[in-house]
């Protein structure tokens, strides 16, 4: 059974003659532990799909079911709680707080949730070792490289053990070696914790690492592949 499922998803922005149909009936299921890439030309609906999966935007039609819970019935308050408890977001702009250390940034979702921080001591050790930043826990973002900042953002996305990790161009502004490290990390986390990772990417190397690649064009799924073909991507 899919951990994350979208059924006949439609999204229209605006109305009347200027309406834009960003998604035109998308149905997809993602298993726990699956690392999926979404690719497609600019304007094909990738970000819209990612935002709807993250309950950051509402679909115009169709259903989103996450861990057996259908999102459409939930209040905004419940959606916010669901995002905080079960989802992790890795966006291209790392959104780290400049005045906080790596460790404080990673702990932010825990602080926001109101959960006690005490039980996170071991988890932090584990996470910082997973992202290879054991010696950078007290550094602030401006003392870290881009790749290190992205890894802090990933540790933050993982800290509460989300079921679903949504990543928007996670390797977008990283050199290829650092990008490869970030991808390994996402794949390792999915495999180790059975998390579903859905990543939007233009990066053929990123897609090559994914278990599965879904191609969108004009708001529809046009192809799926296990191994992306460079001719299709560019
Ligand atoms: P992608 O991420 O593949 O580039 P998007 O999901 O951002 O595609 O956009 C899909 C389509 O929806 C595009 O035509 C885009 O212009 C349109 N769109 C996206 N967001 C909005 C919005 N907030 N208002 C109006 N149109 C939008
Ligand atoms: P709230 O309703 O509490 O203001 P938001 O809707 O802004 O929450 O976001 C809910 C959660 O989604 C936040 O905890 C945040 O971590 C995450 N989130 C939302 N947008 C982004 C983003 N652009 N980058 C990273 N995380 C995001």
Mind explaining what this structure looks like?
The chain is of the alpha/beta class and 234 residues long. 35% of the residues lie in helices and 26% in strands. The protein contains 8 helices and 10 strands. The protein has helices at residues 46-53, 76-86, 102-113, 121-130, 146-158, 176-193, 204-209, 230-233, and strands at residues 4-13, 20-30, 35-39, 61-66, 69-70, 87-90, 164-168, 196-200, 212-217, 220-225. The protein has a 6-stranded mixed sheet. Strands 2-1-4-5 form a 4-stranded antiparallel sheet, with helices on one face. Helix 6 links the parallel strand 7 (164-168) and strand 8 (196-200). The longest helix is centred in the last third of the chain and has 18 residues, at 176-193. The protein starts with a strand and ends with a helix. The model has no long low-confidence stretch (mean pLDDT 90). The chain binds adenosine-5'-diphosphate (2 copies). One adenosine-5'-diphosphate binds at residues 13-14, 20, 22, 40, 42-48.
Sum up the structure in keywords.
234 residues, alpha/beta, binds adenosine-5'-diphosphate, nucleotide-binding, ATP binding, AAA+_ATPase, 35% helix, ATP hydrolysis activity, MacB-like_ATP-bd
């Amino acid at each position: 059974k899919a951990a994350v499922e979208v059924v006949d998803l439609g999204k229209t922005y605006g109305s009347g003659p200027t309406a834009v149909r960003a998604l035109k009936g998308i149905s997809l299921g993602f298993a726990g532990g699956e690392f999926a890439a979404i690719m497609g030309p600019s304007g094909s609906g990738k970000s819209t799909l990612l935002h709807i999966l993250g309950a950051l935007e509402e679909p115009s039609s169709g259903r989103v079911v996450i861990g057996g819970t259908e999102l459409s019935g939930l209040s905004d308050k419940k959606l916010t709680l669901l995002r905080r408890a079960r989802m992790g977001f890795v966006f291209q702009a790392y959104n780290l707080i400049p005045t906080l250390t790596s460790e404080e940034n990673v702990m932010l979702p825990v602080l926001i949730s109101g959960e006690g921080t005490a039980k996170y001591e071991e988890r932090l050790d584990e996470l910082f070792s997973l992202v290879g930043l054991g010696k950078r826990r007290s550094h602030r973002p401006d003392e870290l490289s881009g790749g290190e900042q992205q890894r802090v953002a990933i540790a933050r996305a993982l800290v509460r053990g989300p079921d679903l990790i949504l990543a928007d161009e996670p390797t977008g502004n990283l050199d290829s070696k650092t990008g490869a490290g970030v991808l390994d990390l996402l794949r390792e986390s999915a495999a180790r914790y059975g998390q579903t990772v859905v990543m939007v990417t233009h990066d053929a190397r990123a897609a090559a690492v994914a278990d599965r690649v879904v191609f969108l064009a004009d708001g529809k799924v046009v192809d799926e592949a296990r191994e992306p073909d460079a001719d299709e991507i560019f």
